[in-house]
Amino acid sequence: MKFRLFLAIASLLILSYSLPCHGYEDRPTMAVCFTQAAEHYNIPVELLLAIAEVESGLSPNAINLAGTSYQPPSRKDADLILERISGQRATFDVGIMQVNRWWFEKYGEPYEKGLDICFNVDFGARILAMAIKDHGFTWEAVGSYHSPTSWRKNAYARKIFARLSRLLEKRISTPQEKIVDIKTGDLAFKQLPDDPEQTSASSQ
């Protein structure tokens, strides 16, 4: 069975979202980056934020090398790590949306561009948009952002579902002046099934 994400998030407007500061000097630009990417690819900004939180904890300098996570305190430190690992054969993920090196190589983009917040968010949103094109606006598409393997997709979709649920709960309690409009009556969350095989109509 496929679960339509719009049942959970389509009624939320994305015009004013304020992100918390975690010490990064360029953190205030994140709201603009996420909003622009969401509007460009017609993806709810809350979904992009949930993915970014799960992937990197909203850290623009995050790097993951074959399962080992790095959280460099500055862009310069992150650049040095990328320079060191770029010649290795191991897989690695870059930036706030943790875009895999495969995507940079596929589109001929330099790895260091992944440390630019707006580029990385846009790149991640583009990847998700392609998954949505293939699988519809479903949890299978969300899971495909992480992996083509069925059980990995399902496990990842559950993580995003949990994070998205908490994110939407926070939006409901946000002061009215920060929200253009929230139609809470449409937030009809549907729980994912216990059987992972029921999460999607087909598996890769």
Provide key terms for this protein:
8 helices, 4 strands, Lysozyme, disordered C terminus, mainly alpha, four-stranded antiparallel sheet, 204 residues
Descriptive account of the structure:
By secondary structure, the chain is mainly alpha-helical. The chain has one domain: Orthogonal Bundle (Lysozyme). The chain is 46% helix and 5% strand. Strands 2-1-3-4 form a four-stranded antiparallel sheet. A hairpin with a 2-residue loop joins strand 1 (63-65) and strand 2. Helix 2 (30-41) packs parallel to helix 6 (117-135) and helix 3 crosses helix 8. The longest helix has 23 residues, at 150-172. The two termini are 15 Å apart. 35% of the residues are buried.
Topology:
Elements: H1 6-9, H2 30-41, H3 45-56, E1 63-65, E2 68-70, H4 75-85, E3 92-94, E4 99-100, H5 101-106, H6 117-135, H7 139-144, H8 150-172
Antiparallel strand pairs: 1-2, 1-3, 3-4
Helix pairs in contact: 2-6, 3-8
